[in-house]
Specification:
four-stranded parallel beta sheet, 11 strands, about 15% strand, Rossmann fold, alpha/beta
Length: about 270
């Protein structure tokens, strides 16, 4: 999709009740594991501040849709199995760690939204996202892979075969558009593609397609910002009732987005 023309960007101080919006999208928040750790407990204040801003506007304009960017982390940190419509959120309330702050902030926001059933609020839980425009200096598995390919260095990783489901820009846009085109409602949906991909299969595919070099290192440490998640994806297909249908699977999406990153002249 191409956008043409000049667009004015206003500050949050200009967001007030006299203006008219059909949709408010709240994507304010932390975007990578290192930032989540650095923010610590302040994630609660940041999440609440902008959520309250949107809800106050909705109170004056109840016909306005509010789409809140949530996270699969709202389920908690245990993903021995992928999430589904019957999954319970698990928070270690008596043994909270700093890695729990992000999950709790998202879960609290979702609970607050469900307590406002008269307002058309949709929470969109993103599990894993890949885009040709994302910052590949961030510490995710996919960005670690892309940095290794572009630099020609060997990727070091552990032998834990995690499973991920990577939604890309096209399907994410398709999902948001399906929400906007649907009747007003208060609900929550999970992001998903046609199928997820396990780490070993992803590594082999990137080796075959882009000559990725990798080796396993048992001492390799990940940035554990929200807890270790073996199967961080969802089988909850609630988005279908909004008309959402994914166009591809995780591997196809990763390969497509990676092509543009790997062939760009950007220096890492």
């Amino acid at each position: 999709m191409q956008l043409h023309g000049v667009y004015t960007v206003a500050g949050f101080e200009d967001f007030h009740h006299d203006l008219h919006f059909d949709v408010v999208l709240n994507f304010v928040g932390v975007g990578n594991p290192a930032q989540a750790i650095a923010m610590g407990a302040s994630i609660f204040d940041v999440t609440l501040k902008y959520d309250e801003m949107a809800v106050r506007y909705q109170t004056a304009h109840p016909e306005c849709r509010y789409i809140f960017l949530s996270s699969g982390a709202a389920y908690g940190s245990r993903f021995d199995e992928p999430a589904d419509e019957n999954t319970y959120a698990e928070i270690p309330i008596n043994h909270l760690l700093t890695r729990d702050w992000y999950s709790v902030a998202k879960m609290y926001a979702e609970c607050r939204h469900r307590a406002l059933p008269h307002l058309p609020i949709i929470d969109v839980r993103v599990f894993n996202y890949v885009s040709r425009t994302q910052d590949i200096s961030e510490r995710f598995l996919i960005t670690d892979i892309l940095r290794a390919i572009k630099s020609g260095k060997t990727l070091k990783t552990n032998q834990v075969n995690i499973v991920r489901d990577y939604i890309g820009p096209s399907d994410f846009f398709r999902l948001i558009q399906s929400i906007i085109s649907s009747p007003l409602t208060n609900d929550v949906i999970d992001c998903y593609t046609k199928s997820p991909i396990d780490k070993f299969s992803l590594l082999n595919a990137m080796k075959s397609k882009y000559e990725l070099k990798y080796s396993f290192c048992e001492s390799f440490e990940i940035i554990d910002s929200t807890g270790m998640k073996m199967n961080y994806y969802s089988n909850n297909r609630r988005a279908e009732k909004f008309g959402y249908e994914p166009s591809g699977n995780s591997l196809d999406i990763v390969l497509e987005e990676s092509f543009s990153v790997i062939n760009s002249k950007a220096i890492i």
